Amino acid sequence: MSDGHPPLVEVDTDGARARRFAFVLLESFTLLCFSCAVESLRIANRVAGKTLYDWVLVGENGDPVACSAGVRFPVDLGLEELGRDDTVLLCGGLDVQEATTRPILNWLRREARRGVTMGGLCTAGYTLAKAGLLDGKRATIHWENQDSFAEEFDEVELTKSVFVVDGNRMTTAGGTASIDLMLKLIADDHGEELANAVADQLIYSSIRTDQDTQRLSIPTRIGVRHPKLSQVIQMMEQNIEEPISPSILARDVGMSTRQLERLFRRYLNRSPKRYYMELRLQKARNLLMQTDMSVINVALACGFASPSHFSKCYRAHYDTTPYRERGAHAARLSV
After folding, report:
1. Tell me: domain 19-201, CATH 3.40.50.880, correct?
2. DSSP code of residue 243
3. Is 70 exceeded by the pLDDT of residue 142?
């Protein structure tokens, strides 16, 4: 593995074999989450001056797999039996429900029975959960998929962490979170010095842990640093199914309803009621796109008392009905 230069970090492997990762590429996987993981391993080898890690690419049929950017990757293996010491990392991306096929699920369950360690990058936590491999465990998934995941897998303890390691199961939130997970694994395997050296090579100056959340704080996200406004928005986000009236929200943060109205108008250019409605409709859209929940159940999960009221509000905001939205989404997937 040496490139003619001495290792940057001395690593004693005591003659142990390299740890092998099997990257399972699901159709339309996200290139960023995959490349971040592979590059972290490659750089660990380079920095150590020896092969600490190697990897193979796995595809459902052994055929090339396209990422969401359209680039096709040849794979090394189909759904074959792996070594017990291998680590499986599923790479998910767009429309993970469609990419989660029965052969993939059956293969995962079989390998899991053999004790293989498994992880899901980006949206692939869905695939692990669908296979029943996250039951009773903590996990995370990309924030866009959190609503639908929580509705479908109530036996999984969903978190908003950047990554989660729970026993022999790992999940990440997607994007550069793959780097954070791999740096943890490298540190566990060969020490913090090597992990820090890999981070330096990646120009990755802020290593996150499983205690870090994947989304920006509310003040940062909305570009406003007003503690009471942030508190109200957090309360709204946590109470989608049973919305709280603006008067109660105002009372709970120690202000009048009129003061709350002025605060929202000043910083967000909309009323509290309008902002709350947009949050609920955004969750509804996620559920329509990512689950097979009935429109009635989606309406109830987002705090609407009747399907007709839900449909009216949805159409006013998105210029289409929930039924047409779902139909159009299904048609796009079938192309």
Report:
1. yes
2. P
3. yes
